[in-house]
Design brief:
The protein has three helices and eight strands; from the N terminus they run αββββββββαα. By secondary structure, it is an alpha+beta fold. Helices cover 39% and strands 28% of the residues. Helix 1 runs antiparallel to helix 3. A four-stranded antiparallel β-sheet has the order 1-3-6-5, with no helix packed on it. Strand 7 and strand 8 form a beta hairpin. It has a domain of 104 residues: Immunoglobulin-like, CATH 2.60.40.1220. The chain binds copper (II) ion. Copper (II) ion binds next to loops.
Amino acid sequence: MRRLLTVLLFACAALLGVVTPAQAHNVLIGSDPKDGAQLATGPEKITLTFDQPVRQGFAQISLTGPDGTRWEDGKTAVNGEKVSVAVRPLGPAGQYVVGYRILSSDGHPVASKVTFTLTTAGPGTASQPAPASSAVASQAPDLSAQAAEASQNGGAGMAVLWIAAALVVLGGATIVAMRRTKGQGTSG
Ligand SMILES: [Cu+2]
């Protein structure tokens, strides 16, 4: 019986070793403007800082105003741990939401938001809607990030194979161990 337990323990350890990710997700450690900031003047750009370098190509920052208007201007840029986007002159006073989605250095997408409040209305006009195409474009990075993660985790496919193989080995070892235990029981 001890042999069986030992086999089970080793099998569990092997499974954990395969499943546990080698690296952690990127974590947002700072932003400009800061989360919860009260600003009299709108920022010219938004910069987010992470604890690890962000992968190129999939990062996206959006800035949504109190009336739902989008205020980011142009493409999101990734520079090491920093991700930024330009912002056009803000309009109405109120809460602005900085939504972001990035691809972690471990290949997993991370998405969240920070908010700030514009205390004084700026010169920007809310009647200047984001082009319709940008709404479509904003969906695309989500899909490509997932695709990238999937291909990145050709690792994941391999992990499944490893788990399957480990289960087969575990099953075989369990049968062998049980037979031996049984054999020892009848002969002794
Ligand atoms: Cu991860």
